[in-house]
Transposase IS4-like domain-containing protein (Thalassobacterium maritimum), 386 residues
Amino acid sequence: MVDLERLNSISDYLLEPIGNPHSNPQGYHGDYRLIGIDGTRFTLQNTTAILEKVPKAKTRNSPVGDGLQEVAFPQIYASSLVELGAHNPLAVSVGAGGDCELSLAASLLARLGPADMLMGDCLYGVGWFLHQLVGTSQCGAFLLKVFHSQTSSPVRRLADGSWIVEVKVRSRTRPAKIIATHRVREIHYAVESTNAQGELITETYRLWTNLIDSSEHPAQQMAELYNTRWEHEGYYRELKLEMKKHKYLSSQLLETAQIEILSMVWASALVARERQRIHEKSASQSAQSGENETIYQSQSIRFDLVRENVTTLWRLFESVGSIISEEQYQGFVDKFTTEADTFRSPKRRRRTCPRKIRQSVSHWPKVRIRSESREPVLITVLERAL
């Protein structure tokens, strides 16, 4: 059996904020720390013990046959809170097979505080999650993308074109029953972009926020701020591509798979701390020497070198940890982590091949034509359609 109490105590110790407005300005909106909430799926192995507890999902995205097809591997969900900008996890909830992403996310809301601003995609822009957020957390502010089918009733228009609306929350088991009503500020905006063929594409979006003051928090600024939420996707990329060797987890049991996911999150938190330490030291050295170094360059470090050094220090501790004193061992640690330039990754070269989204088809042609556009994206606030 998994000792959840011990695992949660480790998470409480390791997962805490590390940024501040000075070292992580892109992770703040005014006095609010930007916190992303999102979920992802992890692929498990096809072992008998796992399949007894986690059945395989059904999908229509199959290149062969019609109807629902069974996926190749079982999967479980995990949801997390991430400190944006610093890419630092603050809380994580791992499913047990049948748990959905929304329920896992709701269990994390108690970790939010008055200084936090929660940001989520359209999965969280529904009445039920809004009700959970308002009722079970002390979150200071939120900015949620609204699901397209979610309805709201206008109350009054604000000066910047946004509206105060009422959202009726329906029971998840009895949709005809209204269990609560909440007032939020709703922002409508359009995003205009150009595709590779030069065609103008316009998409419309809605946002909910509890920041009512339109003069202090203009709708245009809030719409542009929502782009910051996509950093959470970058965090998951780091977690799933750099923290493990295979596309599926190595565990043979569901319980050990949960521990493996938690271990990956803990490791990402340690890497975030080390990245923040190197960034702050590099910024301090640049300030003393009069250099003007960008935040992105100082935060880009090589994870493989950090892992190699940590492995060396761990083996050293296993060999002589009982012989040398704690001060002596700390001296070795300081020696290994003194020079920030040791871990800094070089500037990335320009992409030579085009970005392309592959579809689930049987034939995989080579991509020979560049398909992305370099035209700027325009964000425009819209009037609410009554």
Confidence is low (pLDDT under 50) at residues 293-298. The chain has ten helices and 13 strands.
